[in-house]
Amino acid sequence: MGVLYQPDPDRHLAVITIDRPEARNAVNGEVAQGIEDAIDQIEADDSIWVSIITGTPPVFCAGADLKEVGSGNARALNTKRGGFGGIVRRHRTKPIIAAVEGPALAGGTEIILACDLVVAGSTASFGLPEVKRSIVAGGGGLFRLGRRIPYAIAMEWALTGDGYPAQVAFERGLINEVSEPGQALERAKVLAARITANAPIAVQLSRKVMIEATYLDEQEGWASSKSAVANVAATKDFHEGVKAFIEKRPPEWSAS
User: What is the top-level taxon of the source organism (predicted)?
Assistant: First the structure.
């Protein structure tokens, strides 16, 4: 089917599933467009605050469909706004968690690097093996990996093309949690619930500042933070958060 989209408005959560198990969930044109379309729906739906991207077991994503690449259809693996897989260059405001079971190699790792948080089963593996096929990783992996793990380790991954297990990726800082095999999606949902317990606009603006300001100098970082503080202070949820604290009750977020 390519991609499954399952929104759960009551939990403010949506799950995107890469569903090509017969091809190890490799990205073809249908998958790329399906992921972009799902993100479009998430961004447009005020009831969805967080999403999870996963793959039909036993593989998260084996990267690009090399049969499609070999037949001259490489461009189909990229969407106009999202780039590879419809996600690696996609501008968005809401957090995405990757829930990984099995290999997430090559373009699969690049999809991971386009997400905000990662939960992986203990049998998951990661890597950029493109050099083993005389290919250069072109989906953002070569500049994003060194921002997520130490530079020297990222260089080793890029130049050797070796794969690395979930525990190693966790120790290097690439992923947030290692779960028991088969439990990555459920653990990602628990993490999502910890996020959706918070005010959605404040979450989105906090994410924005983290992305924009982490590598800025302090002056620009202060400006970015100040803008986010002012924007969230103008929302109904800002006043609700303060009121709920004073009244000693759980806040009721409106995403406005």
Answer: Bacteria
